[in-house]
Structure formats: structure tokens, C-alpha cells
Amino acid sequence: MSLLCHDSSDLFGLLSGAGIEMAWHPSLSEQSNDDVQNMLLAMERGEQPLDILCVEGSLLRGPNGTGGFHRMAGSGRPMIEIVRGLANRAQYVIGVGTCAAYGGVTAGGMNPTDACGLQYDGATPGGLLGTAFRSSSGLPVINVAGCPTHPGWVVDTLMSIALGDVNEDSLDALGRPRFYADKLVHHGCTRNEFYEFKASAEKPSDQGCMMEHMGCKGTQAHADCNTRTWNGEGSCLRGGFPCVSCTEPGFEEPGHPFHETPKIAGIPIGLPSDMPKAWFVALGALSKSATPKRVRDNAVSYRTEVSPAIRKTGLKS
């Protein structure tokens, strides 16, 4: 569903123009049953080339490592067996979404299905394929993490591979493409003025910054959601919901309600990346003392109550 929301008017034409042909997708392709089984077996045997293997969803290893909880319809074979066979033949292996990358929501709680990611089990390297796994290109699994992942991240990753621009240096420490993972969700957030003055939202409908009270992790989450918006306009924050850091391993179990910010002595535990606690406290106190009434009032309202003042800039031509 996410991929089909890509902003291209002709997604498959765009991929085809880059030399990318979708061999098969369970929801988007016409082939079924014997045609699919024969194609996958041919790829596993090396009789048919497989340049890029994209896996969606976590890998269910249970019960007892058999993979019997998730079998491919029509074949009776565990999906983990098929994925291992295809991964050993593929030039590149991509985990599409946080579940395929790290285990995601499926691996939360008691994890009765023993779900994991392709090369990570949560934040721990390993997963289904193991720490040492490398595809035929010499790369580890490329983790296009996100829940859901942004269609632009998927397409740009595929296009980068087609252009030969993907290497170890283009992936971050968790295997995510750096073109989006080197950004923070905080960048481009429409609530940044409220953040700068530490003018915080107090309830879901408020316009203010959601970091202090409502669990927002946009200052820590690695993604470009607010500069590469969804469907040309949206993001979680623009929709009024705090960032839950869905591109990170373990986001599904933060240890607190998603919409609450845990604190110690009134100071949020999840401080912005790269900022020492003492600096944040000093900056927060200074910012709050300088907060304009307009910003303070608008922060706890569902609409703009006070408009910016109209003043001459003092600039002369």
C-alpha cells in the first residue's frame, strides 16, 4: 500500500526506465500458484537470475526454529527456508519496512512466533541470515526501515542500486540508506517554532511541540519524514501525532505509552540527539523565559489564536 502511494504517475514505468523489472510481488503480480513456485525454485537453483530480493514483514522462525508458523501458500514450505534460498542467490537483499529489518511490531511482547528481521533481531545483529551474511554484491542486508516505510525510500533505494550507487559507505550503522537515515524527523517539522521556545502541547489537538509532554521523538528519530512528506503533504507530526521513531529497532516497545514523555525530575529522558542534558536544561529555561505570548497561546490551542505582529523590517532598499 505504501509503495503504490509513490508520487510518480507511473511507478512501474519509472522502475522500468531504470532497468528494473518486478519479477513477482504477492499483491501486485498476476502470476500465482505453480508459476510462482517454479520461478522461485529456478531462482534458488541459480537457473534464473535474481538481482534484488525485497522482503516485506518479519521472519517467523517458530515453532522451535522450523518456520512452521508461516508457510508459503500452495507450497507447504516455510517462508524462512524460501527467503534463505533466495538471499543466497541475490545480488542485493533489502528489508522493506521495520519488521523485515529488525522484527518490528510482530516481534514485540513475548514474541511467541520467534519473529526477527533479516539480519537483525531487534537492535542485535544476527536475525534470520546471521551477522556474517553478505549478498553476492558483498553488502549486508539493506534495511529500508519505517512502519510503514516511505515509498520514496523504497524507490530511491532501488534506483540507487540500478545506478550502481549503493555501497557500505551509503548505509548507516543499522544498515539503513543514509540518504534518509542521516536526517532527523525534527528537520522541517512545522512545529519547530514551538520547539525553539519550548512552548509545548498539552493535549492531542494542541499545535505546540509534542516532545516535552506527548512522547514525540522527532529530535532523535532518523528519517526525513518532514522534508520528504507523505503523499505530498502529510507526516505523523503534521497529522497531530507524535513521532514514535518507527525507523529504529525496538520502537514497538518504548517502555511507556507512545503518547507520553517519561521524565526524571521534570526533565524528558529522550533528549535531542547530540545535546548534553545540562545544555538542554539551560536552553529550555532561557527559551521559555523569552517565549512570545503569541507562541505560548497558540501552543495550547487547536488553531492560531494570535497572529504574528505586523511590523516594518527596518530594511531599506
In this structure, how is the largest beta sheet organized? Answer: 3 strands, parallel
What percent strand?
A: 5-15%
Tally of individual domains: 2
CATH topology group of the largest domain: Rossmann fold
> How many strand segments?
9
Averaged pLDDT: 93
Kindly report the spatial arrangement of strands forming the biggest sheet: 1-3-7
Count of helical regions: 9
Low-pLDDT regions: none
CATH architecture assignment of the largest domain = 3-Layer(aba) Sandwich
Q: Give me the Rg, rounded.
A: 23 Å
Topology pattern, helix = H, strand = E: HHEEHEHEEEEHHHEEHH
Can you identify the CATH superfamily of the largest domain?
Answer: NADH:ubiquinone oxidoreductase-like, 20kDa subunit
CATH class of the largest domain: Alpha Beta
Helix content: 10-25%
What is the SS-derived class?
A: alpha/beta
Compute the separation of the termini in Å.
52 Å
Question: What spatial form do the alpha-carbon principal axes imply?
Answer: elongated
Description:
The chain is elongated. The protein is built from 9 helices and 9 strands. The model has no long low-confidence stretch (mean pLDDT 93). It has 2 domains: 3-179, Rossmann fold (3-Layer(aba) Sandwich), CATH 3.40.50.700; 183-303, Irregular (Cytochrome-c3 Hydrogenase, Chain A, domain 2). It has 317 residues and is α/β, with parallel strands linked by helices.
